Amino acid sequence: MTTRQVNEMKRLLRAGVPSFARSVATVMTCIAMSTASIDAGAASTEFSACSRCAGVALVWSDGDYDQIYLAAPVKDLASQHPKELSPEGLTHALLKLKRSGDEKAEPVFSPQQARKFADGLAAALAKANSRQDVLFFVTTSRGGTGWFAERRGYSGRAFIDDRGLNLIFGGAELDFIGQYLGTKRQPTFDFGSRESISAVSLYASGPSLQRRDWVAIPLAMMNKPRHATSQPSHGAEARKAAVTDEQYYAAQEVRLRRLRSLMEQDLITRDEYERKRKSILEEW
């Protein structure tokens, strides 16, 4: 609706009941302002967590904000990439991270969010070469569900060496969405550094804490978890086995769906899709 149309609507409404007219006119003004804001936003670029990073390549995204990149190659790096890791094992390890240096603190990720991040991280590490770090920006939900949940961001880098999978966090609990939606300016995030420590403080049970912002997860922690067998069991054991088996196949279904989504977004080739799909099916 144009400004001229809104003004004409106001004029016509003023000829009616004054109090009602004022209320409707106010609503129409708000609608016009919202429309103008939406139109302005439509002309801006899409969200990029790494808009000022040089030489990076986006390799995975999920939703509006979660993004994973391959950093520009660095000559002196000698990481153990590419490397295929089990998303299930990665999820298990990520759930051990807590968002402060306190054992009683809340986990960084919920099970669903950890699995989503694990899928993207596994895809990126399988593509990275020995001179590339993986840069990630992922979000978590706090204090509610659906529209009422707060979205907070975590930024950092990942790489594999003799210690295992290293995660260095540059930012945590970042409240960025309101400012981005209000200004449409691309935010700037810290993706952590091997040389200098950030303000992030983590707690990890199982993974080794290299610094307060840096954890190293032994690859042995990310072996494929065992799922239920078909051996006969009774009572509570039978119910437990059935639940475990159901969860395992549900996880496999998620892997296959996400894999297909990566191919459809041209993030992996058809040949890569078929090879990984075959690998997943062979695990059954």
Which structural class should the secondary elements be placed in?
alpha+beta
Strand order of the largest sheet: 1-2-4-5-6-9-8
Tally of individual helices: 7
The fraction of residues in strands falls at 15-25%
- Spatial gap, N to C terminus: 56 Å
Residue share in helix = 25-40%
Number of strands: 9
Give the topology string: H per helix, E per strand. Answer: HHEEHEHEEEHEEEHH
* Rounded mean pLDDT score: 78
Multimeric state of these chains?
single chain
| General form | globular
What is the compact description of this entry?
It contains 7 helices and 9 strands, in the order ααββαβαβββαβββαα.
Describe the model.
The protein starts with a helix and ends with a helix. It is globular. The strands form two sheets. A seven-stranded antiparallel sheet has the order 1-2-4-5-6-9-8, with helices on one face. It has a two-stranded antiparallel ribbon with strand order 3-7. The protein is 39% helix and 19% strand. 31% of the residues are buried. It has helices at 3-14, 18-42, 87-94, 111-127, 177-183, 235-264, 270-282; strands at residues 57-62, 66-70, 97-98, 134-142, 150-161, 164-174, 203-204, 208-211, 214-217. It is α+β, with helices and mostly antiparallel strands and 284 residues long. The model is unreliable at 1-6, 17-44, 225-233 and 238-244 (pLDDT under 50).
List the helices and strands and how they pair.
Blueprint: H1 3-14, H2 18-42, E1 57-62, E2 66-70, H3 87-94, E3 97-98, H4 111-127, E4 134-142, E5 150-161, E6 164-174, H5 177-183, E7 203-204, E8 208-211, E9 214-217, H6 235-264, H7 270-282
Antiparallel strand pairs: 1-2, 2-4, 3-7, 4-5, 5-6, 6-9, 8-9
Helix pairs in contact: 1-2, 3-4, 6-7
